[in-house]
Every structure is written in C-alpha cells, then in structure tokens.
Specification:
The protein is of the alpha/beta class. It contains twelve helices and twelve strands. The strands form two sheets. Strands 1, 2, 3, 4, 5, 8, 9, 10, 11 and 12 form a ten-stranded parallel sheet that branches.
Length: 336
C-alpha cells in the first residue's frame, strides 16, 4: 500500500493574502474528501515562498474545516521558537484536532531566513538540536529542568500533555541515509526530496535498521516530495504545470537572489517544469500517465508515502481543485 499526502509551501499566488488563505482552506476540505492521508505545511519567513509564517495559526483553522485528515507542519523551524511555547501550541493543536496532528521538526532549509529573524545561521543546527531536546523532555516529564547553551528552564510545571502519547507522530527531512541511524530507533517518519537514488538509499537503510531493531509494527512513513498536476489530458496538465511552475520557482530562490547568494537547489528544482519532469522530480498528465509515474516512483525509491505538491505558483483554484479530484478519484485507488 502507498500512502498519499499533500505538501504545501503555501507560496504567494499574487492574490491578496486573505483570498489566498481562504482558497487554501477550501482546498484542504477537498483534499480530505479526496482520500489523502495528510496535509503538510512548510514554514518560511520574509519570502513569497511561504505565506503561512505561523503554521500553528493556519493549522488551527484547517482543523476546524476537517475531521479525518492528519495535519501538521513540515517543518516547525525550531531555532525560531521558544521551545516551551511551541510545546504548548502542539498540545493545544493535538487536542483541537482530536489527535490528528503531526509534527515536523527541523533547523530550516533556508538559513538566509534566520538572518532576517536575528538568528546567527551558524548557530541554527545546535539550536535545533537543543530545542528538540526540550520538546522531547517536556513530552515525557511532569516538571522540566533544562540547562543548555541556548535554553535554560527551571521548575517548568508541565500542565498540558498532547492527546497522542507520548507525542504526535514526528516527521523529519532526511538529508541522506546516515540520518536513519537516529530516525529508526526513535520511530521518526522521514521525507526526502530530489533524486530517486537518495530516496532508495534512505528507504533501504530504514528497513534494514527496523529489522535490526526487531520491530514488529508497521514501518513509519518513508516519504518523498514531488510536484504533481493532473488534468483530463496530458496536454492540458502540461499547460497548467508549465504556466504555474515559474511563479513558484521564482519564489523558491527569491531570498537567495535578494541576498546575492547562489541558489543551492538548482539540480533539484530546475528553472522550468519540463526540466523538472525530465529529471523525474515531477509529473503532469492525465490520470493514467500519473498512475504510471507513481508506480515507477514507488519501484525506484521504495518509499511508502508520496507527498504531492499539487498547488503551487499562480495556479488557478479551479485547476488545482480539478487536479486534486482527479488524483483522488483515479490515482489513489490504484495503490490502495
């Protein structure tokens, strides 16, 4: 079985912010009805790549529109948070969603954004690890004392606990297979982007570690992100994807260009959709074309979850909703 989720930067479409947010909430309702297992929201700052700069606020609205789908950040950029304040938000969201929250954690993929928040990018990795330790300690403790380099807390009485115990499912962006040595023992769900070969190495390492640990339960999520557009014909899907992608791609490297720094993800995200599709990092087509692509992707990578980026750039609401409906009705059932 292959699980399907939506990954969303919630990047600027050029529409007013209120209209953008309202349309996305309407799409999340549709995403649930079309059978997707989860909706994952990115966090970005000072860039058109991410207009939901407070994932918790947006997700609290999405929770009220849905009843079954899992919802969560991918990721909370931990160096930008007071970790105990974030812990309290996580507990609230988990109860508001009746246990449907997932929690992605990371240092943040664009360290140039940290500078604009007054955070030294060179300290971000260490801040991430320390903040994550605070979160995990709070989940397991009744009273938290913590003495770190960046965070120090004394006699913090843990009044709230999440509904899902010991904590909601954790997601982590795995940069390579070596990261699985930490992820597998802790039952962390992982997701990668980019080459299929990297995803294959990660999935094989996870299965190997899981077997070595003697775990009997189902594997955690082993995912990969891909741009996906579905339409009634290949030609129509290509038209939609090729028109919307440049707007998203411009947002993707916006902060690098503004900072006068070379963009580091060109090999993963080329400048046009045809090139993205050529290297296998996306697909636009009729349902049968997309089904064939997903089957090849599953075979090439060994993942058990595909996080589809189906709403991006200045794609119209009608094109996005039709794409999601076609995927739900004609693609997902083929992999159930």
């Amino acid at each position: 079985m292959l699980n399907f989720a939506i990954f969303d930067h919630l990047d600027s479409s050029g529409a007013p912010l209120g209209e953008l947010l309202d349309q996305r909430l309407r799409l999340i309702d549709l995403i649930e009805r079309c059978g997707f297992a989860a909706y994952h929201l990115a966090e970005h700052h000072s860039t058109p790549l991410g207009m939901a700069s407070s994932p918790s606020v947006f997700l609290s609205a999405a929770i009220q529109r849905t009843s079954k789908i899992r919802l969560g950040p991918l990721v909370y950029v931990l160096p930008l948070y007071h970790p105990l304040r974030l812990y309290e938000e996580i507990c609230m969201l988990d109860h508001l969603s009746n246990g449907r929250l997932t929690v992605g954690v990371g240092r943040g993929g664009a360290l140039l954004e940290h500078q604009r928040y007054g955070i030294d990018p060179t300290l971000a990795p260490a801040m991430y690890h320390e903040a994550f330790a605070v979160l995990m300690r709070a989940f397991e403790s009744e009273v938290l004392d913590f003495e770190g380099k960046f965070y120090r807390y004394k006699d913090y009485v843990v009044q709230a606990k999440p509904l899902q115990r010991p904590h909601p499912p954790i997601w982590y962006g795995a940069p390579n297979a070596e990261a699985i040595a930490w992820a597998a023992p802790n039952g962390i769900n992982v997701v990668s982007l980019g080459p299929a070969e990297r995803a294959r190495a990660i999935s094989e390492r996870y299965r190997q570690e899981w077997k070595t640990l003697g775990r009997d339960g189902a594997l955690p999520g082993i995912g990969i992100t891909r741009h996906v557009v579905v339409a009634d014909t290949d030609a129509e899907a290509q038209r939609i994807a090729q028109a919307a992608y440049p707007h998203w791609r411009n947002a993707m490297d916006y902060i690098w260009r503004r900072s006068g720094v070379a963009f580091t993800l060109t090999e993963i995200y080329p400048t046009d959709f045809a090139a993205l599709q050529q290297i296998g990092h996306g697909i636009a087509g009729a349902p049968s074309t997309v089904r064939d692509y997903i089957a090849r992707l599953q075979d090439e990578t060994g993942v058990n979850t595909v996080l589809c980026q189906m709403v991006f750039g200045d794609m119209s609401f009608s094109d996005a909703s039709h794409s999601i409906e076609l995927f739900g009705n004609e693609v997902i059932p083929a992999f159930a």
